[in-house]
């Protein structure tokens, strides 16, 4: 017994059965009814949206012996021959493997002969964008003036690769991604005919995973049937798609928005305790964040939610800013569970970082400093919250609790950056980092000999130059940006550069500092502050 | 009879040829008696042999030479005799010389002007184009609202091949009903480009609801994320170029030529938008686009989500 896969078995046989393409089927049906069928059609659109199927239906319809209303009857000898694939007058050409000029010349030669049984010879040329340029030109002449007994249907997924000359000689139809509702009702019909018992929510999940392609949806359904038989429940669908279906992902979004770290951490822990796949949980969380993003942007209809969920998402969107959502999305995207799918740390880190605002960063650093004394103290994520740059967060997500304490020592460094002495001590790193930059690759030499940091004004490093010529050169935005970016990289936060003229070794607008002794100087360099000065 | 048909509008030339053919009696017998030459390699004797032959089982003999005038150089002695020889053609022969854009002072054209019916077919523009659309719809038994005519003219441009095909589609879609703007948007393939323009407009202006809904409409219509990125980038590039060319005092025609545009809609939109935004804002959008493109190509984000974020961040 031979069996056919669903997408072939349930391929639409009439234009009415083609789902989600009403603008195409209505036009074609009217053309067939009124006998105004064009000699060449071009069907463009994503995969699985019905291009080839519509081409085949068209081939049947123009040749059908009993057609009254434009649709093929599917009963006459010709329709049967087409359906069984033995009609000689429908020629399907795969342009991806027959892309040369010789194949197209051959096609042109054959097209001259009258059809053997049918009224029209119909050439269905799939993936027409794959034709070589000479082949496309050779086809163009035939498309322009085809023999009266020939109809062409060209199909492509990439219309922009089809030469403009071919585009202009065909009647072009753009197939759209099939909406979820249309897909669900088509799947329902297939399930009825096949005797499959499946819930509506499962079909919705299938339709959602198929991203607008009917063929993908039918294949997914078939896989489910092959695996679970004809009775399928939602859990089975969820497990095959790797969906947890857990409401806690939605819950966590709420906690992220409300900056409720405690409740969020609890949710993440309960998810782990229940043994859910954290990678999948994270994917779902991102999906919910995206829904929120779209609701905030004003296009919630794009994700096709049920009215209740939509109302909830909309109300949640009101209490959050676009920046907050995109920050959360980025942080959770960077969560790397690839090598350790059971550690909740990366998720917790992302959650805590989401809850942080700019102003909150400073006090948390001091907490971090406390953690340094007690490496085993939990929760380690808090210690890492200070990191301002996203890529650093990604690196941090990978570290274990022990490694985290090592990081803590590093994150305390920016505290020192308020001190010009610290800048001066690390200035050579900035200079070395610019090696090879500049028009002749010697920016580092210029920086080394022509200037030195003389003061720090908030986030601006004041560079003292000994000569006007050098100062002007570094003031050029091109060079200034180079220095600024390297300084920001080395000091871990964005800095600007201001250039002034100075005498070598002198620091203007800054009182001369007297040395406190080499031990005190070293302590200050390491971050110590003078609290009280005793009499000597 | 002798006809010379030339001009950039090859669609109208084809229609004119069809009209001439229709006046030459039975189509099937005319098919036997039709000879078409490629003008580039045609010799005078070869052409005249075909012209002097009597029709076989038909009333007329049709000889068509394409691209002959364009190749003609003043000093080509062989063709000097053409004028005298075509006059001696039997009355049953109809000779049609077809050419693209050639100059009015083309030597062969000036020689033959006196003995042939000459028609020029330049590309239609502006009101003439709109009139052509309205006329075409009426000839085919339809009726278009003036707004729909304007919209389709601006969307498709001056390519009459595409226009004719889109009008036919619209007539079939509406089947007797008056065609309005909504039908054009629903059926005309080139409407997608207009949506990209509207989306970019909304993006640069920071109108997130419009940008986000247009983005999802385009995705739903089958546009892929990389395609949209390319289209947005292309438009931004056009805006920057148009802005720079306008600043240097270039004319509309010059800008159109330099940007390699065929559609007037795209040109006017590009100029309009470029005047509206500062170079700084365009630069900012450019950087964001690069970031989005890289993030898709590096697999950081999926296409749709990356575009959602692009909209969110530019409109924030």
Offer a concise description of the structure.
Chain A is 54% helix and 9% strand. With 536 residues, chain A is an alpha/beta fold.
From the 3D coordinates, which CATH architecture of the largest domain in chain A would you assign?
A: 3-Layer(aba) Sandwich
Please give the domain count of chain B: 3
Number of strands of chain B: 5
Task: Evaluate the radius of gyration of chain B.
Answer: 26 Å
Largest interface: A-B, 45 and 37 residues
Mean pLDDT of chain A: 79
Q: Rg of chain A, please?
A: 34 Å
Order of strands, widest sheet of chain B: 2-3-4-1-5
CATH class of the largest domain in chain A: Alpha Beta
Overall morphology of chain B: elongated
- From the coordinates shown, what is the CATH architecture of the largest domain in chain B? Up-down Bundle
Mean pLDDT of chain B: 85
Largest sheet geometry of chain B: 5 strands, parallel
Q: Tell me the number of helical segments of chain B per DSSP (H or I, 4 or more residues long).
A: 17
And the CATH topology of the largest domain in chain B?
A: Zinc Finger, Delta Prime, domain 3
Structural class determined from secondary elements of chain A? alpha/beta
Total DSSP helices of chain A = 27
State the CATH superfamily name of the largest domain in chain A.
Answer: P-loop containing nucleotide triphosphate hydrolases
Strand segment tally of chain A: 10
Q: In order across it, which strands form the biggest sheet of chain A?
A: 2-3-4-1-5
Give an overview of the whole structure.
The complex is a heterodimer of chains A (536) and B (316). Chain A has 536 residues and is α/β, with parallel strands linked by helices. Chain A has helices at 6-9, 22-34, 51-63, 77-83, 101-111, 133-144, 164-169, 180-194, 200-209, 214-228, 234-241, 248-258, 261-273, 278-297, 307-318, 322-333, 345-355, 361-373, 380-383, 390-398, 401-411, 413-416, 420-433, 443-450, 468-475, 477-491, 518-525, and strands at 40-44, 90-94, 121-126, 150-156, 171-174, 197-198, 231-232, 451-457, 460-465, 496-501. A 5-stranded parallel β-sheet of chain A has the order 2-3-4-1-5. Chain A starts with 5 loop residues before the first helix and ends in an 11-residue tail after the last helix. Chain B is α/β, with parallel strands linked by helices and 316 residues long. Chain B folds into 3 domains: 2-120, P-loop containing nucleotide triphosphate hydrolases (Rossmann fold), CATH 3.40.50.300; 126-187, Helicase, Ruva Protein, domain 3, CATH 1.10.8; 189-314, Zinc Finger, Delta Prime, domain 3 (Up-down Bundle), CATH 1.20.272.10. Chain B has helices at residues 10-22, 27-32, 44-52, 68-71, 82-87, 107-112, 126-139, 146-156, 160-174, 181-187, 191-205, 208-220, 225-247, 252-259, 264-276, 279-297, 303-315, and strands at 2-6, 34-38, 61-66, 93-99, 117-120. In chain B, strands 2-3-4-1-5 form a 5-stranded parallel β-sheet, sandwiched between helices. In chain B, helix 11 (191-205) crosses helix 13, helix 13 (225-247) packs across helix 15 (264-276) and helix 16 runs antiparallel to helix 17. Chain B starts with a strand and ends with a helix.
């Amino acid at each position: 017994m031979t069996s056919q896969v669903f997408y072939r078995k349930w391929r639409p046989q009439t234009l009415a059965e083609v789902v989600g393409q009403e603008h195409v089927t209505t036009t074609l049906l009217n053309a067939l009814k009124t006998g105004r069928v064009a000699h060449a059609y071009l069907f463009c659109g994503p995969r699985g949206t019905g291009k080839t199927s519509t081409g085949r239906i068209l081939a049947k319809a123009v040749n059908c012996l009993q057609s009254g209303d434009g649709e093929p009857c599917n009963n006459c000898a010709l329709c049967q021959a087409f359906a069984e694939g033995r009609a000689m007058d429908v020629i399907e050409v795969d342009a991806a493997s027959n892309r040369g000029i010789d194949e197209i010349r051959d096609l042109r030669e054959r097209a001259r002969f009258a059809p053997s049984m049918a009224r029209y010879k119909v050439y269905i040329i799939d993936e027409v964008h794959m034709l070589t340029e000479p082949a496309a030109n050779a086809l163009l002449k035939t498309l322009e003036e085809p023999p009266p007994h020939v109809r062409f249907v060209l199909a492509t997924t990439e219309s922009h690769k089809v030469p403009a000359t071919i585009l202009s000689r065909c009647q072009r139809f753009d197939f759209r991604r099939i909406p979820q509702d249309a897909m669900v009702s088509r799947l329902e019909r297939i399930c009825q005919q096949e005797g499959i018992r499946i819930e509506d929510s499962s079909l919705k999940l299938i339709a959602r995973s198929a991203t607008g392609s009917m063929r993908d949806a039918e294949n997914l359904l078939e896989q489910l049937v092959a695996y679970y038989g004809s009775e399928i429940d939602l859990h089975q669908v969820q497990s095959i798609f790797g969906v947890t279906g857990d409401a806690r992902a939605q819950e966590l979004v709420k906690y992220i928005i409300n900056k409720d770290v405690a409740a969020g951490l609890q949710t993440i822990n309960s998810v782990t305790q229940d043994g859910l796949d954290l990678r999948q949980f994270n994917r779902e969380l991102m999906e919910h964040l995206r829904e929120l993003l779209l609701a905030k942007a004003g296009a919630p209809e794009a994700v096709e939610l049920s009215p209740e969920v939509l109302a909830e998402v909309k109300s949640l969107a009101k209490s959050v800013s676009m920046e907050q959502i995109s920050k959360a999305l980025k942080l959770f995207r960077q969560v790397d569970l690839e090598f350790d799918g059971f550690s909740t740390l990366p998720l917790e880190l992302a959650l805590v970082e989401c809850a942080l605002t700019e102003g909150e960063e400073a006090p948390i650093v001091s907490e971090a400093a406390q953690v340094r004394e007690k490496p085993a103290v939990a929760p380690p994520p808090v210690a890492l919250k200070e990191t301002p740059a996203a890529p650093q967060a990604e690196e941090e997500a990978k570290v274990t609790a022990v490694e985290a304490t090592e990081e803590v020592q590093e994150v305390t460094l920016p505290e020192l950056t308020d001190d010009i002495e610290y800048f001066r001590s690390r200035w050579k790193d900035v200079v070395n980092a610019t090696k090879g930059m500049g028009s002749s690759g010697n920016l580092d030499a210029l920086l080394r000999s022509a200037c030195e940091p003389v003061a720090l004004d908030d986030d601006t490093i004041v560079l003292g130059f000994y000569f006007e010529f050098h100062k002007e050169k570094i003031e050029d935005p091109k060079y200034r940006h180079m220095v600024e970016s390297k300084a920001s990289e080395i000091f871990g936060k964005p800095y600007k550069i201001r250039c002034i003229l100075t005498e070598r070794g002198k620091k203007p607008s800054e009182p001369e500092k007297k040395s406190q002794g080499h031990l005190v100087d070293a302590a200050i360099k390491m971050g110590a502050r003078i609290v009280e000065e005793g009499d000597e | 009879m002798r006809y010379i048909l030339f001009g950039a509008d090859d669609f109208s030339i084809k229609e004119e040829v069809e009209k001439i053919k229709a006046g030459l009696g039975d189509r099937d017998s005319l098919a036997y008696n039709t000879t078409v030459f490629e003008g580039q390699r045609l010799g005078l004797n070869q052409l005249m042999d075909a012209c002097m032959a009597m029709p076989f089982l038909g009333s007329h003999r049709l000889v068509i030479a394409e691209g002959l005038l364009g190749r003609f150089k003043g000093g080509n002695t062989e063709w000097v005799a053409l004028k005298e020889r075509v006059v001696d053609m039997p009355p049953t022969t109809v000779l049609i010389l077809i050419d693209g854009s050639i100059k009015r002072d083309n030597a062969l054209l000036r020689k033959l002007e006196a003995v042939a019916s000459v028609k020029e077919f330049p590309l239609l523009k502006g009101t003439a184009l709109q009139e052509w659309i309205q006329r075409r719809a009426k000839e085919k038994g339809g009726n278009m609202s003036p707004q729909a005519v304007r919209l389709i003219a601006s969307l498709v441009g001056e390519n009459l091949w595409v226009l004719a095909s889109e009008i036919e589609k619209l007539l079939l879609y509406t089947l007797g009903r008056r065609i309005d703007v909504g039908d054009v948007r629903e059926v005309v393939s080139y409407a997608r480009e207009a949506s990209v323009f509207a989306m970019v407009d909304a993006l640069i202006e920071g109108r997130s609801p419009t940008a986000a809904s247009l983005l999802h409409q385009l995705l739903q219509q089958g546009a892929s994320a990389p395609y949209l990125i390319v289209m947005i980038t292309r438009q931004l590039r056009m805006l920057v170029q148009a802005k720079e060319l306008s600043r240097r005092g270039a004319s509309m025609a010059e800008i159109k030529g330099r940007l390699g545009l065929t559609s007037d809609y795209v040109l006017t939109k590009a100029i309009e938008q470029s005047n509206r935004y500062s170079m700084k804002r365009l630069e900012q959008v450019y950087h964001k686009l690069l970031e989005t493109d890289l993030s898709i190509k590096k697999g950081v984000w999926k296409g749709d989500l990356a575009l959602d974020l692009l909209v969110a961040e530019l409109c924030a």
